[in-house]
Amino acid sequence: MTVATPPSTKIPPSNHPLADIIYRLEAGGAMLPDTPENLMQIIGLYKAYAVPMDFYWRDLLYIGEQVFLNPLPFFKFFISEEYLQLPNHYAGDTADLRIWRGGADCHPELREFIEKGELKQKLPRLFHHLWHDRINMEFAEECMRSMLWHRDMYVPWNQFDPYLDSEEYKQNADRAIKAYFKGNPVMLGLYKLFPDMFLEQCRQASYYANLGLFWEVMAPVFFEMSDLYDEGKLTSVPEAMNFLVNGIFAIAGRPIYHHVYIRGECYEIIPKSKGFTWLYEAALPYVEAVFYRTSPFRGTKSYNAQAKQVPDDQQDFHYGVLYADKFPVGTAGIPPTFLAQDMLHFLPPYLVEYYQQHCRGEDDMLVQLAVSFQRSMYCVTSAVIQALRAALLYPLDDPNPEHLKANRAFFEAQMDRFLRPEARIRDIQTQDYR
Amino acid sequence: MADIVDIAVSNDNFKTLVAAVQAAGLVDALKSPGPFTVFAPIDAAFEKLPPGTVQTLVQNPPQLGRILKYHVVAGKYTKADLEKLDSVDSLEGTSIRLNMKANEVKNSTVIAPDIEADNGIIHVIDNVILMGP
């Protein structure tokens, strides 16, 4: 590990315990070191993540827009052909802004997996599902629920969450709920008795749409990065991070909304005209909810109120991917196993070969890929930190020392969140962690 | 004298800003009596944004409108007025950090303050400012 030296002599050195990482950020780098091995792992995992993500965003929108408040949603993971072909707004010839040069409908590897699964046999989808040969959509739902439950993140800049409590939202939801259950006196009667129960389900559906629209952007970004790497056009970790930073800015203004389709008619529960944006209403709350907070793993923490293992304050939750212990992946009570299992199916060949040479080879590949995934998410978080710095503060080469000090204070505040012992930021500095 | 929109239109440095205000449908609002204080980014400020940013915003007028409203404050504040304040509330709803002693609005520098208009005042800045702490 090389220790970075202060990039600027214009301001005094930092006294922060993670000063070496702060200097790297100030020099335009990422939280993880710029090595070819790191680059290979993070790009490989972006690819392996993007394929199930291509399913996640489609199914999240399908549930938010079509399944909506179905009280018995047995088939909510059996996404319709229409949603598999739904053109991604950022891929293909019809894109609003083309990020991935590939096609706009679902990824060919995903299509093949849905048809044949791990069994490599064409069976009815119901059999694949019952044999658990499928995409673990529960992981996407868990991320959605995390956003729903950790409310008020980034308020007042995030206006989506307060809107869910507004009179306007309640009226829009009311219209959709009544239309959805039209001709169903039992559900309409229940709605009269317990209106808030239905309203809360509607809020959850709105978060299905929110997360679906968020991932609709990330999937083509990751596909494009993987293609660029294969073509030899992405050659370093900072380049990968900067591709993400540019992607964040390019898409920052895309609308976040919730439309429900009932008998062919569109009900705008959250209209696009509210001005909600991808950056403020989806990306920033998502990073906070899923990368930092989530909820304590059932298999690593006791929820016993006397034991006081789980914080009282939601702000102190630290169970996101940046803090997660990846070694028990594959055992009971460890939610990221769902995602690791999904990504295992779509690893690029160079990573399979790489994992075979390390640790227990194929046997613990799930753990090895989960650790690589953690590295890749540290790269994404680095991009978010750099994007926030660029949007709200100053360029890294700013000649004004006061501006550099403001940047320094911002980076230090971000690194403060990694001072708790659970943070894996120290581990990812070397390859011994795998 | 002319109103805020007329002044921006007559100045060659605000081509992108004028086009954005038109795309977002805010022309009438900025021609109304107000008064408003507008922090107006010059064309070079929009060019500093990464590629695609402006394109996505122009495709989505409500979202573009929100960013533009962040550059507008209700009431007329001269540079001298702003020097007494740490922040002002934008029409977007969130506040704008000020450091007028250093001639700064958030992370932008004021290039030309106190341009008077019929319905308010314009301060020209060198960066597009964005919502956030």
3D structure, described in words:
The complex is a heterodimer of chains A (434) and B (133). With 434 residues, chain A is an all-alpha fold. Chain A is 52% helix and 3% strand. Chain A is built from 16 helices and two strands. Chain A has helices at 19-26, 36-67, 81-84, 108-116, 125-130, 137-149, 160-163, 167-180, 185-193, 195-230, 237-251, 278-293, 336-344, 349-356, 365-392, 401-416; strands at 258-262, 265-270. Chain A has a two-stranded antiparallel sheet. In chain A, strand 1 (258-262) and strand 2 (265-270) form a beta hairpin. In chain A, helix 6 (137-149) packs across helix 10, helix 9 (185-193) crosses helix 10 (195-230) and helix 10 crosses helix 12 (278-293). Chain A is globular, with a radius of gyration of 22 Å. The two termini of chain A are 16 Å apart. The mean pLDDT of chain A is 95. By secondary structure, chain B is α+β, with helices and mostly antiparallel strands. Helix content of chain B is 35%, strand content 26%. Chain B has seven helices and seven strands. Chain B has helices at 4-10, 15-23, 27-31, 43-47, 53-59, 61-69, 79-83; strands at 36-41, 72-74, 87-89, 95-99, 104-105, 108-117, 120-125. In chain B, strands 2-1-7-6-5-4-3 form a seven-stranded mixed sheet. In chain B, strand 6 (108-117) and strand 7 (120-125) form a beta hairpin. The longest helix of chain B is centred in the first third of the chain and has 9 residues, at 15-23. Chain B is globular, with a radius of gyration of 14 Å. The relative contact order of chain B is 0.22. The mean pLDDT of chain B is 95. Chains A and B meet through helix 11 and helix 15 of A and helix 5 and helix 6 of B.
Write out key terms for the chains shown.
heterodimer, A: two-stranded antiparallel sheet, 16 helices, 52% helix, B: 133 residues
